[in-house]
């Protein structure tokens, strides 16, 4: 689904080049729940931004199915971001003066002309993530978990085939994190692909593949059975032992 060929990404800071991603190649498969881990500053968020078209790569190639993301015009990137992918941020980035319902539905109106369809889909998502009761609330009137589930629902309004999530549980307590991870797992169970950056082992256990980044390149690539097909204790032991071997 996503093919990444030899990408590099550098930022210039006061005339000095900071090489954040170096010669990174991999494929992200359709239907997978892929997690990206690695130490702070290893380039995880930058990789997610490059794959989602929010940052331009310095060199290399990124393909989403047959589309060359690295060659897209601004308009094509906007369409890619609107139609093909959804993005969930750590700080939910919901619009403060819109209700949860409006936050979810508005990106839908930009794509689907039939407002009734958008309205119905937004209501289905509110139900799926159990946030119907806060539909008319402003984000500031919701808990962190409700806001984050609102953020996931918003990312799903245009039925993207892949969801990118940048530390979606980073700002949540453990109960709310489980709630958000359950929501992501259920989306993945329905066939949508997820690519999630996290520092949290509990979150990483949801993945069937973990990529470990170090200094902007992939140091390790762990394949796991689906989350439902392995007992949680042995999965945790396997993942922690692998992460330890990566120097985590
Ligand atoms: N817009 C930018 N301009 C300049 N440097 C940047 C920019 N964005 C990121 N960087 C630098 O790129 C490097 C990688 O950042 P990135 O956020 O991708 O790392 P990360 O692995 O996600 O880190 P963390 O786990 O701390 O969130 C860091 O050194 C960071 O300072």
Automatic annotation (TrEMBL):
Residues annotated as domain ABC transporter: 2-240
Molecular functions per Gene Ontology: ATP binding
Keyword Protein transport: no
Keyword Endoplasmic reticulum attributed: no
UniProt entry keywords in alphabetical sequence: ATP-binding, Nucleotide-binding, Transport
UniProt record similarity statement: Belongs to the ABC transporter superfamily.
Name of the protein described by the UniProt record: ABC transport system ATP-binding protein
Species whose genome carries this gene: Breznakia pachnodae
Lineage: Bacteria, Bacillati, Bacillota, Erysipelotrichia, Erysipelotrichales
